[in-house]
Each structure stands twice: as structure tokens, then as C-alpha cells.
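User: For a teaching handout, I'd like to show students what a predicted protein-ligand complex looks like in C-alpha cell form. I'll give you the sequence and the SMILES for flavin-adenine dinucleotide. Please answer with just the structure.
Assistant: Understood, here is the input followed by the structure.
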Amino acid sequence: MGRYRRALPPGTVHRVGGNGFCGCSRRKLLLILQERARELGVALLFEADIDDEARFADADLVVLADGINSRFREKYIAHFQPEVDVRSNMFAWMGSTRPLDAFTFIFSGNRVGPFIAHAYQYEVGRSTWIFETDPKTFKRAGLRA
Ligand SMILES: Cc1cc2nc3c(=O)[nH]c(=O)nc-3n(C[C@H](O)[C@H](O)[C@H](O)COP(=O)(O)OP(=O)(O)OC[C@H]3O[C@@H](n4cnc5c(N)ncnc54)[C@H](O)[C@@H]3O)c2cc1C
């Protein structure tokens, strides 16, 4: 804590400009992918919970991409042998309409410890804000996961 205060006084803001950045909202990306799939003749099926891949038994290829908590990765854990490395820092990931013209890192802190914000604009009028702290500071601040 003392070392943190000496190295990075609360209120320090670093702006990192000049990097090329290409981004869009998740919604826009998904719409682009859906449009391309339709062009290729793919039948899109939404809001269908797949609990048994056996329904695709006659398919040539099945791609399962069910996210970070993949139930199929768990089901086939012996085959895929995934390595999951859970780290300890705590994050809150938020969206804002505040414009930013550079990657922005804000170092803040009070008597409980350091908090860091990483923020960047990904499209006009939309920016992502990630607030991060270590588990001890999180607990001292009275926060609960
Ligand atoms: C808050 C946040 C911000 C992020 N910001 C960025 C960023 O700025 N840039 C970046 O590159 N990455 C970012 N990421 C990471 C990025 O979102 C992920 O890496 C990416 O979405 C992973 O894609 P995926 O297709 O593997 O899984 P997902 O996007 O999670 O997609 C999995 C899909 O499978 C569906 N599904 C799950 N189970 C079933 C089931 N049984 N039946 C049917 N459907 C099912 C889910 O509903 C979901 O639609 C961010 C992540 C978060 C949480």
C-alpha cells in the first residue's frame, strides 16, 4: 500500500495515444457475422438451448462454441483437457457514452488501497471502462462479489 502510494499518487492519469485501434460494438460484429452466414445459406436458429449435441448426429461438422462456462467443454473434459487459470484480481466492466481520444489509465486510491480504471473508446459515442483492484483492497472497501 505504502509502495503503491509512492509510485503512483492517487489521481494519476496516463493517456496512451497514437496507437491504431479498430473496434466496433459486439452487436455490430454479431450482425456482420449473421449477415455473412445468411449469404452462405446458413439457417440461423436463435434462442435455442442445446443440451444434447446428438441432435446434430447427421452433420459433417459440429462446432461447439458455448462460451467461458462451456458445458460441452466440461462434458468432454477428458478429451479437451482444458487448463483454467483463475486469477485473483476483481473487475467491474462497464459501458459509457463518454468520448475518449486515447487509451486512458486512471490510478486512484484511498486508505483501503489502489483502484485502477482502464478505459477506451470502441466506436463513436461508446467507451468501455474496466475498474480493477486486488482482492484485499476489494474486501477492505466493503465490496462483495
Ligand atoms: C464485459 C466484457 C467485455 C469484453 N470486452 C472485450 C473487448 O473489448 N474486446 C475483445 O476482443 N473481447 C472482449 N471481451 C471478451 C469477448 O467477449 C470474449 O472473448 C468472446 O465473447 C468469446 O466468444 P465465444 O464465442 O467463445 O463465447 P461467447 O461470446 O460467450 O458466446 C457463447 C454463446 O453460446 C451461447 N450458449 C451457451 N451455452 C449454450 C447452449 N447450451 N445452447 C445454446 N447456446 C448456448 C451463449 O448464449 C452465447 O451466445 C469482453 C468480455 C466481457 C465479459
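For the handout, you might add this sentence: The chain has one domain: 2-140.
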